[in-house]
Amino acid sequence: MSDQASTYTDPLALRLPVHGEEAPKTYWHATAGTAPYDDGVLTQDLTCEVAVIGGGYTGLSSAYQLARLGIGPVAVLEANRPGWGCSGRNGSFARPAIGRIPYEEWDRRWGSDTADAMFSEALAALQSVREIISEAAIDCEAMPEGWLKVAHRPEKVSALQAERALLQERFGLDVDYLDGERLAAEHVRGGEAYAALRWPVSFAMHPVKLAYGLVNAAREAGASVHSGTPVIGLSKEGAYHRLTTPAGEVRARRVIIATNGYSVEKLFTPLRNRLLPVLSNVVVTQPLTAEEKAEGNFHTTDCISDTRKMLYYYRRLPDDRIMLGGKGPVRPGPAAMARHRDALLAAISRKFPFMKNPCADYFWGGWVALTFDSIPHVSTAEDDRTLHYAMGYIGSGVSCSIHAGRRLAEHISGGRQELPVPMSRGLPKYPFAAFRRVGQAIAMSWFARKDERGL
Ligand SMILES: Cc1cc2nc3c(=O)[nH]c(=O)nc-3n(C[C@H](O)[C@H](O)[C@H](O)COP(=O)(O)OP(=O)(O)OC[C@H]3O[C@@H](n4cnc5c(N)ncnc54)[C@H](O)[C@@H]3O)c2cc1C
Q1: Tens digits of per-residue pLDDT, 205-261?
Q2: Does the Cβ of 326 fall within 6 Å of ligand 1?
Q3: Are 353 and 193 in contact (CB under 8 A)?
Q4: Distance 31 CA to ligand 1 centre (A)
Q5: Domain assignment of residue 100, yes or no
Q6: CB 92 less than 6 A from any atom of ligand 1
Q7: I need a surface site. Which of 47, 103, 153, 260 has the fewest CB within 10 A?
Q8: DSSP string, 14-80
Q9: Which pTM does this prediction carry?
Q10: Nearest to 421 by CA among 373, 378, 370, 374
C-alpha cells in the first residue's frame, strides 16, 4: 500500500485496520528524534489481564495507569507505530476541552450540576496531562500556559465578550479580554484578528515527543507495547476475550478499545454506526525571517484558534515556523488534499500578512472522531462489562484522551466510575448512519458559509 492510499483511506470503508505503516511524514515525526524501543510485533500467543487496542494517547495512558495501579499484565497492540494516528499528527494544543458544545448550552443540555461536573472534568483532563509529563519526566517542549481565541470577524467580538462573562460568572474561570490593539502589542499583529479571549490554562507541546514519552512510561511501569500488531478479530470465549493478530493470539480478561478515528467499526460491535471519522489537516511553513517576525511582533508561544465554527488553529513553533490546521476534505484524494493544503496556506497569508511567501514544508492529515452528541465517551459495552472503550474527542483530544485512559484504569482497578454521566454513557448511534458522509458534506458547506459571514 502506498503512504497516501492507506493513511488517508476512509476508515468507514475499511474492513481491516491500516497496518505495518511507518510514521507519517509530519513535522513532529521529523523533529522528535529516535523513536523509543517497544516490544515489537507480537509473534506468539499471549495471555494478559488487559489488552489495549491502539497505541495513541488513549491506549498508552490507559496502559501506564493500569500498570501503575498494579493491574497486569497489560499489553498494548498497535497496528502501526505508537503515535502513528492522531496522537502524532495533532496541532499540539493541550486544552481543557470536552467535545465541541458551546458553553452557553451546557446548563440547558445537562442541568447545572452536571454542567459543573463536566467543566471540572475538563480542567482535570488538562491536569492529567501536566501530571503525566512531570511524573514520567517527559521532555515534550511544553510551552507556558495560554490559549488565545481570536475573533476572525468584527461581528464575533460581542460573542467573545459574552463568552468571557459566562466563563467568569457561571464557571468561575478568569479569562482575559484583549482588544485588537492589545492583541497586536502583546501577542501577534496579524489579520483576521479583531479581539481575543485569553485562557490562562492550555499549553502547546511536541505531540510525538509526548507519545514517545508515554511509550517509555508505560513500558517502565510494566506494560508491553507491541507495534506492527493489528487486531483483526475480537471474540469471547468464557471469561476471556480472544484478540486475533496476524502472528499471535491474545487472551485477555478485559479489553480497552482505543482506536478513535482509526476504528474499523466492522471489527468492534460496540462502535458500529457510532463514530464519524473526519479528516483534519495541518500545514507547517518555512521559518519566519527575523524581519518578518519583527514586523508581525510574533512572539507569543500561546495556542491560538479563531472563532470560526470550522476553526483554524495555529501557533509559532520554537524554530519560528508557523503551524496552522483546519478542516480536511470529506473525501481525500491527491487533488482534494492539494486544494486543502493551498487553502491552509491562503489562511496563513490572511492571518500573517507579514510572512512573504508561505510554503508548505510539511503537510499532513489525520482522522479525528466525531460523535452524534458531540462529546467523548469513556464507557463499557452494554452486553459485556469487561469490554471498555474511550473515544470521540471531536478533534480536541490531547488532554481528554490522556485523561480518559486514566479514568478507565481507575474504573478497572476499583470499579469506580467518576466521570460525569454524559461521558460515561455508551456511544449513541448515528441515525441514518449509512449517510454520515452526506450529512458531513452538507454540514461543512453550511458552516463554511456562516463562518465567512461572521454568523
Ligand atoms: C490534524 C489534527 C490536529 C489535531 N489537533 C489537536 C489539538 O491541537 N488539540 C487537541 O486536543 N486535539 C487535537 N487533535 C485530536 C487528538 O490528536 C486526538 O483526539 C487524540 O490524539 C486521540 O488519541 P487516541 O489515542 O484516542 O487515537 P489515535 O492517536 O488516533 O490512535 C489510535 C491508534 O489505533 C491504532 N489502531 C486502529 N485500529 C487498530 C486495530 N484494529 N488494532 C491495533 N491498532 C489499531 C491506529 O494505528 C492508531 O495508532 C488533532 C487531530 C488531528 C488529526
Answers
A1: 999 999 999 999 999 999 999 999 999 999 999 999 999 999 999 999 999 999 999
A2: no
A3: no
A4: 19
A5: no
A6: yes
A7: 47
A8: -SS---S------HHHHTS-SPPP---S--S-EEEEEEEE--SHHHHHHHHHHHHTT---EEEE-SS
A9: 0.97
A10: 378
